[in-house]
TrEMBL record:
Residues 1-20 form the signal peptide. Belongs to the OmpP1/FadL family. InterPro entries: OMPP1/FadL/TodX. PANTHER family: OUTER MEMBRANE PROTEIN NMB0088-RELATED. It is a multi-pass membrane protein. It comes from the Bacteria. Keywords: Cell outer membrane, Membrane, Signal, Transmembrane, Transmembrane beta strand. It is found in: Cell outer membrane. This is OmpP1/FadL family transporter. Transmembrane segments: none annotated.
Length: 367
């Protein structure tokens, strides 16, 4: 059932804007630790969101047009079997990100970008028959910038104000990962519980109004801790049930540059609630080389006021794909369609009937 088990993880890198308002992009990639022998993997995904809203009459009506930009993501991993009981692995991912830009109506010029790269080094130790423990360190690098046009900056400050910009230079922080798993290979059963610590970035931030620097200071932004329960089990010959439940403490994430908060008494953006994401799917092996799979992902909405930079609330997505093995190389491709939950921001702009399409390709090699 190896092909089916590999296929079960294939779409992990293809869902993006569907998670935590578009900030949480890759989820948990650590299943590579459970591949047999030595293993290397490359993953690519392209995400094409369509997120637009309707302005209220007080803002002149009309549409915001699409404010969520398409983007590409990349991931890589390599795992080496040191002994029969000890494995080590290296992961490179782009776990968090935002690409928002308004080009129509009252919000024209409002834009934000968040980039991140994470390097993780983990080890897995077989503690007893069927039981393994794993853990290691993660190094997270992020940078960000935001632009608020004059009309919105004036509304936030309560007085006529030129365009506001804030640029957070690159910052690197270190977190950790710990987990445990139970396996019964004869029925393709695996249950794994993983804890990922949060980190707090300390960005050197330059804030400017009308192009003139107002303040250079340090802005602290927390990235969430998370707990993920992954599971899989054979339920019939050549058929695998798989899924996960992931809790992430996104309520700690907010952006409060010092000058902006002093002028407005508010934050630039943030997420008010923690996020729980549920995934479930089925994989089916067609023959020794080919398997197919399908997956459903659900993230409940909170009903709170939406951020203008991430104006969705919850998601339901559907993914399908297949995996083909040629010699020692496995090619896995998938496509996922996400229905993004309706949301309303503090100005009464209503974002409804939005969606995202993601396609992904993973190439794995046993050596």
């Amino acid at each position: 059932m190896k092909n089916v088990m590999t296929a079960g993880a294939a779409l992990l890198l293809t869902t993006s804007i569907a998670s935590a308002g578009g900030i949480d992009r890759t989820g948990n990639p650590y299943s590579v630790l459970f591949e047999d022998g030595n293993y290397a993997q490359l993953s690519f995904s392209s995400v094409m969101p369509e997120v637009s809203g309707d302005y209220p009459a007080t803002f002149g009506g009309g549409s915001t047009d699409n404010m969520a930009e398409s983007y590409l993501s990349f991931g890589a991993a390599v795992k080496y079997a040191v002994t029969s009981d000890l494995d080590v692995a290296l992961f490179i991912t782009q776990p968090y990100g935002a690409d928002a830009s308004y080009e129509a109506g009252a919000y024209t010029g409002l834009a934000a970008e968040w980039n991140s790269t994470q390097l993780s080094v983990l080890g897995k130790f077989k503690a007893a028959e069927g039981v393994s423990l794993y853990g290691g360190l993660s190094i997270v690098q992020s940078d960000a910038e935001i632009t608020i046009p004059a009309a919105l900056a004036s509304a936030a400050a309560g007085a006529p104000t030129p365009e506001y910009t804030a640029q957070a230079s690159s910052d690197v922080q270190v977190g950790y990962v710990v987990g445990a798993a139970y396996e019964r290979p004869e029925i393709a059963l695996r249950v794994a519980l993983t804890y990922e610590s949060g980190v707090t970035h300390e960005f050197d931030t330059e804030e400017a109004v009308g192009g003139a620097t107002q303040l250079e200071s340090e802005t602290e932004i927390q990235l969430p801790q998370a707990v993920t329960l992954d599971f899989q089990s054979g339920i019939a010959e050549d058929t695998l049930l798989f899924g996960s439940i992931r809790w992430a403490e996104w309520s700690v994430w907010e952006v409060r540059p010092a000058f902006y908060e002093g002028a407005t008494g508010d934050r630039v953006t943030g997420i008010d609630d923690d996020v729980v994401t549920y995934r479930a799917g089925l994989g089916r092996r067609i023959n020794d080389d080919l398997s197919v799979f399908g997956r459903i992902t659900f993230e409940d909405g909170t009903g709170g006021v939406a951020s203008r930079l991430a104006p969705t609330d919850g998601t339901t997505s559907f993914g399908v794909g297949g995996s083909y093995t040629m010699n020692d190389v496995e090619f896995t491709g998938g496509v996922e369609y996400a229905l993004l939950g309706d949301a309303t921001d503090s100005a009464g702009v209503e974002f409804t009937d939005n969606s995202a399409i993601a396609v992904g390709l993973t190439v794995g090699y046993n050596f």
